[in-house]
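Reply to thread "Modeling small-molecule complexes from scratch"

Following up on the discussion above, here's a worked example others can learn from. I took a protein sequence and the SMILES for inosine 5'-triphosphate and predicted the complex. Inputs first:
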Amino acid sequence: MVRRFTEKKLVIASHNKGKIVEIAELLAPFGIDVVSAGDLGLPEPEETENSFIGNAQLKALAAARAAKLPALADDSGMAVWALDGAPGIYSARWAGPDRDFDMAMEKVNTAVGNHPDRRADFVCALSLAWPDDHVENFEGRIEGDLVWPKRGKNGFGYDPMFQPRGYDQTFGEMPAAKKHEMSHRARAFDQLVKACFA
Ligand SMILES: O=P(O)(O)OP(=O)(O)OP(=O)(O)OC[C@H]1O[C@@H](n2cnc3c(O)ncnc32)[C@H](O)[C@@H]1O
Ligand SMILES: [Mg+2]
């Protein structure tokens, strides 16, 4: 049985500001009182699993147990076809300890070189966990292509080098509302909302 979210307060189990902003925007219609893991002083767990869902679940459970509140975690990343899915679950780690995404984007571009296949997917796993260890998992994906030079200052992470297929703007050029019409995160949210909030 899918468990529905009936509480009033939810922890966003993330330490990534760009992500927290997007999750808060996607949750806005539901009138939930949200608090981030950082606000609560929760530690950032080590991401030891080898899948998006595995790491999302690990982060959500750690926060739910520590805060004694339901917690929503997001594990996401960009999977490049020419790199056999890299950086994938290592997308944050490619940016180094300083989380330098200008450097990470250069790294991706250099690794792809002049490979003719420019396809990339953004993937988002969402995990909603409760303090009794019940978990619900969802995944969303958006197909696109790498662009270089990167374009746009909106969003975060790899957004300026990713253009969703069928659009002429990168995620870095789109206003947030447009990204939310089809992003990997918005698609995972659609499923979460249908299963747990509707
Ligand atoms: O684990 P938390 O604390 O949530 O924060 P994080 O930044 O480490 O998040 P992840 O482990 O899920 O790593 C995913 C990385 O993939 C990138 N990423 C995910 N979604 C993205 C998006 O919508 N646009 C651009 N980059 C994105 C971004 O750079 C993230 O740092
Ligand atoms: Mg992380």
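What I'd highlight from this example: The mean pLDDT is 98. Residues 14-16, 19, 44, 47, 59, 74-77, 91-92, 101, 122, 155-159, 171, 183, 185 surround inosine 5'-triphosphate (ligand 1) (CB under 6 Å). Questions welcome below.
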